[in-house]
Amino acid sequence: MELGEREINLIERTFVVMGVVFAVVFSIFCLAIILWPAIDASAAEPPAKHTFVGVAVCSVCHKSDAKGNQFKHWQDSKHSHAYELLGTPAAKAVAVKAGLKGDPQKSPECLQCHVTALGVDKSFMGEKFHMEDGVQCESCHGAGGDFKTIKIMKDRKQAIANGLVIPDEKTCRGCHNEKAPTWDPKVGFNFKEMFKKIAHPLPKEKAPAEKK
Ligand code: HEC
Ligand code: HEC
Ligand code: HEC
Ligand code: HEC
Predict the structure, then answer these.
(1) pLDDT value at 206 more than 70
(2) Does 28 share its domain with 66?
(3) Does residue 137 have its Cβ closer than 6 Å to ligand 1?
(4) Count of domains in the chain?
């Protein structure tokens, strides 16, 4: 039986339409697969969580003079007194000027930059973690619960995989920024000079080889 031209045209068109529909559905499907991780990541909680152990724990291995005594450098820096500072008349004056009514030592508006791990769930705080210790090692180096063992600490790659942060200027600017009520745009934040004031290097022969 011969098919008329009309029927052939109709069959052809049906195939073309089906092809287009298939192509569209397939592209959407592929796009969804490609974009899925991105969509998922943006909606998800921050990645792996680690426990904040507190400066007392880091200091166990980081307070010998032979290895640069990072603990003492920190203790002598203003960061170790950042919480205490909020209890001073100077801080109260700053708070009043900023329009804050409450006690600065109890106000998240101030604590967010003057202590470590504000707002972190209690279940992620070690026994030796104390907010009163101010801006601690873990404010800059990340929560140490999973990298603090000697085996992991000795291996920079592993330490980083377990939460160690090698901080840079961006880390500092997380607090040293215009949201601080005492911020002076004329002074700004000079990373090089400010880092000199808190430097706490390992002795040369101990410094990791693969530096930036
Ligand atoms: C059990 C001992 C121990 C503890 C506890 C410890 N560390 Fe370490 N850490 C080391 C050792 C060992 C190194 C390697 C350098 C060295 O030999 O001194 C190191 C290296 C580091 C480095 C340099 C990493 C690099 O590659 O540049 C940082 C930063 C650091 N530790 C931070 C911390 C912080 C923060 C804590 C607390 C959360 C902590 N450490 C707790 C032993 C320890
Ligand atoms: C965005 C982070 C941030 C917030 C929020 C913040 N601070 Fe600070 N604060 C800093 C930093 C960083 C410094 C150190 C600045 C410097 O010395 O260069 C500082 C320094 C200070 C100082 C001493 C410096 C001076 O000029 O006397 C006082 C007092 C102070 N803050 C009080 C407060 C009070 C009170 C609040 C809450 C109303 C608050 N801060 C909120 C980051 C912050
Ligand atoms: C205010 C932020 C900050 C705090 C607080 C801080 N560090 Fe660091 N730390 C840094 C920066 C920045 C570096 C340099 C990173 C680099 O090598 O590029 C560093 C480097 C180090 C190094 C490696 C030094 C080297 O020569 O390679 C060790 C070890 C270290 N910190 C341990 C500690 C310990 C222990 C504490 C707490 C007692 C602490 N840090 C507190 C910011 C901080
Ligand atoms: C978690 C918030 C936070 C981070 C991150 C932070 N700082 Fe600070 N910094 C403070 C606060 C708060 C003070 C004021 C403490 C005080 O005066 O008692 C301060 C004070 C200082 C001071 C003393 C200023 C002075 O007048 O002597 C220096 C230097 C400094 N920070 C350098 C740095 C550097 C460098 C980094 C990054 C490697 C850094 N800070 C990261 C909160 C932070």
Answers:
(1) no
(2) no
(3) yes
(4) 2
89-115, pLDDT tens digit by residue?
999 999 999 999 999 999 999 999 999
Q: 159 CA distance to ligand 1 centroid (A)?
A: 9
Residues 26 and 109 in one domain: no
Of 77, 88, 92, 94, which is best to mutate to test ligand 2, by the most ligand atoms within 8 angstroms of its C-beta?
A: 94
Please give the average per-residue pLDDT across 28-40, as a whole number: 49
Question: Is 91 near ligand 3, meaning CB less than 6 Å away?
Answer: no
| Distance separating alpha carbons of residues 60 and 140, to the nearest angstrom | 18
The residue segments making up the domain with residue 30 are: 1-40
| Amino acid of residue 151 | K
What global pTM score does this model have? 0.86
Q: Does a structural domain hold residue 123? A: yes
Percentage of the chain with pLDDT > 90?
Answer: 73
109 burial (CB, 10 Å; 0-12 / 13-18 / 19+) is middle
- Quick check: 159 and 58 in contact, CB under 8 A? no
- As a whole number of angstroms, the distance between CA 103 and CA 92 comes to 7
Instruction: Return d(Cα 20, Cα 24) in angstroms, integer.
Output: 6
pLDDT per position as a tens digit, 162-172: 999 999 999 99
Q: Tokens 């500092």 label which residue?
A: 172
